[in-house]
Amino acid sequence: MDLSLYLILDPSRCLHPPLEVATAAARGGISLIQLRDKRGDEQACFALAQALKQRLDDFNLPLIINDSVAIAQAAKAAGVHLGQGDGDLAHARATLGPHAIIGRTAPNAAALQADELLYADYVGHGPVYATATKQNHLPPIGWAGATAGVALSHKPVVLIGGLGLADVNHVYRTGAQGMAVASAICSANDPAAVTSQFHQAWLAAMQSAPRSA
């Protein structure tokens, strides 16, 4: 499971059709894609999930579905990501099986150490910055909070919330396993080129940036 460059694919934020954005990101070096479709049309979300699954299989890339265990199961996605209060992790694990990738949003210390994370593979921690892609988000944790959260977590951490290309080194230094990117790629005119820039920046960070223990 490579969490280093984690695309949150939000159709409402995509400059190009979501399937094209996902394909371009795959070509650019994305490591995992989460479909977060908040338009409220489950059938449209399922159809897009099916198309994405078929396309991403060509790149051997996992597709994660946001919030819906049912769509993840029906589309034969690699797994599901559940926000706080958006579903039971034990149920998700029992439904999707032992090999599914299951993530949980963990915005604070209590969530990072919750017993339910026994059933999760990773956590999304943040927001590091305020972000326009999610309404009513919690107050930003900043880099000190991000570093503390990574140190506290017993699960791999993906940092979330308003992150861009300039933040890659900061993310790597916290000890996080990866960073979630939404608007920076979804809204790009050339998502393949932007993804490649992120990918190269992460590789460079691995070579040069000191990492928290």
Automatic annotation (TrEMBL):
<feature type="binding site">
    <location>
        <position position="105"/>
    </location>
    <ligand>
        <name>4-amino-2-methyl-5-(diphosphooxymethyl)pyrimidine</name>
    </ligand>
</feature>
<feature type="binding site">
    <location>
        <position position="67"/>
    </location>
    <ligand>
        <name>Mg(2+)</name>
    </ligand>
</feature>
<keyword id="KW-0808">Transferase</keyword>
<feature type="domain" description="Thiamine phosphate synthase/TenI">
    <location>
        <begin position="5"/>
        <end position="185"/>
    </location>
</feature>
<dbReference type="GO" id="GO:0009228">
    <property type="term" value="P:thiamine biosynthetic process"/>
</dbReference>
<dbReference type="InterPro" id="IPR013785">
    <property type="entry name" value="Aldolase_TIM"/>
</dbReference>
<feature type="binding site">
    <location>
        <position position="86"/>
    </location>
    <ligand>
        <name>Mg(2+)</name>
    </ligand>
</feature>
<feature type="binding site">
    <location>
        <position position="66"/>
    </location>
    <ligand>
        <name>4-amino-2-methyl-5-(diphosphooxymethyl)pyrimidine</name>
    </ligand>
</feature>
<dbReference type="GO" id="GO:0004789">
    <property type="term" value="F:thiamine-phosphate diphosphorylase activity"/>
</dbReference>
<dbReference type="InterPro" id="IPR022998">
    <property type="entry name" value="ThiamineP_synth_TenI"/>
</dbReference>
<feature type="binding site">
    <location>
        <position position="134"/>
    </location>
    <ligand>
        <name>4-amino-2-methyl-5-(diphosphooxymethyl)pyrimidine</name>
    </ligand>
</feature>
<dbReference type="GO" id="GO:0009229">
    <property type="term" value="P:thiamine diphosphate biosynthetic process"/>
</dbReference>
<dbReference type="InterPro" id="IPR036206">
    <property type="entry name" value="ThiamineP_synth_sf"/>
</dbReference>
<protein>
    <recommendedName>
        <fullName>Thiamine-phosphate synthase</fullName>
        <ecNumber>2.5.1.3</ecNumber>
    </recommendedName>
</protein>
<dbReference type="GO" id="GO:0000287">
    <property type="term" value="F:magnesium ion binding"/>
</dbReference>
<feature type="binding site">
    <location>
        <position position="162"/>
    </location>
    <ligand>
        <name>2-[(2R,5Z)-2-carboxy-4-methylthiazol-5(2H)-ylidene]ethyl phosphate</name>
    </ligand>
</feature>
<keyword id="KW-0479">Metal-binding</keyword>
<dbReference type="GO" id="GO:0005737">
    <property type="term" value="C:cytoplasm"/>
</dbReference>
<comment type="pathway">
    <text>Cofactor biosynthesis; thiamine diphosphate biosynthesis; thiamine phosphate from 4-amino-2-methyl-5-diphosphomethylpyrimidine and 4-methyl-5-(2-phosphoethyl)-thiazole: step 1/1.</text>
</comment>
<dbReference type="Pfam" id="PF02581">
    <property type="entry name" value="TMP-TENI"/>
</dbReference>
<keyword id="KW-0784">Thiamine biosynthesis</keyword>
<keyword id="KW-0460">Magnesium</keyword>
<comment type="similarity">
    <text>Belongs to the thiamine-phosphate synthase family.</text>
</comment>
<feature type="binding site">
    <location>
        <begin position="34"/>
        <end position="38"/>
    </location>
    <ligand>
        <name>4-amino-2-methyl-5-(diphosphooxymethyl)pyrimidine</name>
    </ligand>
</feature>
<feature type="binding site">
    <location>
        <begin position="131"/>
        <end position="133"/>
    </location>
    <ligand>
        <name>2-[(2R,5Z)-2-carboxy-4-methylthiazol-5(2H)-ylidene]ethyl phosphate</name>
    </ligand>
</feature>
<comment type="function">
    <text>Condenses 4-methyl-5-(beta-hydroxyethyl)thiazole monophosphate (THZ-P) and 2-methyl-4-amino-5-hydroxymethyl pyrimidine pyrophosphate (HMP-PP) to form thiamine monophosphate (TMP).</text>
</comment>
<dbReference type="InterPro" id="IPR034291">
    <property type="entry name" value="TMP_synthase"/>
</dbReference>
